[in-house]
Structures are given as structure tokens and as C-alpha cells.
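=== RUN LOG ===
request id: a7f3
mode: sequence -> structure
chains: 1
length: 327
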Amino acid sequence: MSDSIDLNATEAETAVHVCFLMLPEYTLSAFSNAVGILRMANRLTDRRLYSWSVFSLDGQPLISSAGLELSIDGSLEDAADANIMMVCGGYQVKKYCDKALTDGLRKVAKKKIPIGGIDTGTYALAVAGLLDGYRCTIHWENLSSLREEFPRLEITSNLFVIDRDRYTCSGGISSIDLMLNLVASIHGHQLVQEISEQFTCDRVRTEKDAQRAPLKYLIGASQPRLVDAVTLMESNIEEPLTLDEVADYVGISRRQLERLFNRYLHCAPSRYYLELRLSRARLLLLQTSIAVIDVAISCGFSTAPHFSKCYSDLYGKPPSAERRALR
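=== RESULT ===
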């Protein structure tokens, strides 16, 4: 969990008002998932913890990518009482990021209102310069192009990112994960657990969870040997290969392999391989009842202490605590 939210509202008395700014061709499902979490928080507590409004830039109705139309409460300038502003993007987002939008978003940010992007809403924030110095994420189809256009941004492939007063998620059901974590930072984990049960979520995912993004979208299609190396790693989890073996299989030197990983995946190949194995271990811990030592062995760790240390370093808790938390 990242930083808690500092809102100018008395939690017990005043609803947190979330304003959704819809861009043309917005993704309806990602928006409705986000609103659903807020609605459920109100229902389960029988209190008006959250309120929400829906805006477009000029106050005119917009059609979603599904061809459906929402009722609009007003223009962006009418969103003066927002505690949080979420920008909901969709297809062809670049076409709609004009000066009027960027100027409007900058005005919101100047008021110190926490602001976020759902799906390709992240792109609109990047164009407005509102993600400079922040970590962020976007749908995996847009990762490569966003990195090309904004090379100085710290763009991750996580499901969502909460970095101080900037919130971004990758779209789809990740808007559920983002809003659950925001609710937890305001009203606590017990409420979030109850909400997730209502949504039949098997667990509340965190920022440590990555999108299931095809590698070609993370780095583009111009590095086939890097793709081959990662595919080889994914196929050899239980008995990990050495880096020399990986390099030899894909027909390059170990030094070339290290350069490719550092340039395109921003980490050493040994670190990438380790996190790949730990990610597989986490899925086994969360989704099966396999003994922890057997999970360790199946993911290429010869001893339980070494597995536990590596797991704790990455996820902030040992494997046994991860299993207990799920129960």
C-alpha cells in the first residue's frame, strides 16, 4: 500500500466526492467498475462515505466505446467540489488531448486536488505534464508507445499505481483494484475485505501485481532475441538456466543479453528471472494449498530460508504470512 490520502473532509461527516471526467470513446466497463466499489462502500456501511459525479470537458454528452451514453452532470469547470478527479480514457485517446483538455487538467492540479487516470486516462495526464516525477501505469497495449513519447516518465507495467496524489490504473478490472486500495487508505482494510467479498474477488490485488502483458507490447517487436530469452526463462522455472545458457540458446553473448535487459526491461536478466520465479510462487501460494517448501522447489529454490528471504525482499512479507493473509 502506498501513501494514504490527505483529503479536506471530515470522514465521519462528509462524503468523499469523486469526479469522473469522461473522454470521448471512454471505456464504460472500467468506469462502472470504479463506481461500483464506491457504491458498495456506501451500501455496506449504510453511510454516504462516497459521492460521485460525471463530467465531460464541455458538459456535452459523450458516447462510450460500447456505443452507450451516460448522463453528464456538467463541464470540467463545474467540478469545483471534487475531492478526487479521475480521468477515464479509451480508444484513440491521443485525438482528444487538445489544449483545452490539458489546460483544464492543469487547473485541477493547481487546486491540489488528487488526480488519476483510468485506462488511457493516464495518457491525458502525461500530456498535461501531471505525471512528471511520479510513477504511473497504463494498459499494456499502450505501454510501449507511452514510453517512446514520454521517455523521462517512470512508467511501470503494474495493474495500478498510487504515488502520492496521482492514481493510475491499466483499465478493465484493474479499476476495481485501484479503488479498493484507495478506499482502504481512507476507510480501512476491513471495509475493503467486505467489498471484495461482495464482488466475489478471491483477494485484493496490490501494486505488486503486474499486468499480464505480452512482452512484445512492453518492448515492441524489434527485439526478437530478448523475447526468446524471456520465453526461455518462463519455460524453465523449476530448474532455472544459467545466464550463460540463456545467452547461448538465443545466440548472443552474456554481455549482449545483459545490455538488452537493462535497456528494454530496466533490470538485470538475473533480477528479471528471479522476479519471474517469485511471481509464479506467489500465484501458487495464493491459488493452491501446496506446502510452502514444495512451492519453493517448484519455482527453483533449493532451500526454504533462501526462498523466504527473496520473497520477503520483493513482496514485503514472507511466504507463510502471504498464505495466512489469504486465509
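=== NOTES ===
The radius of gyration is 21 Å.
The chain has a mean pLDDT of 88.
=== END ===
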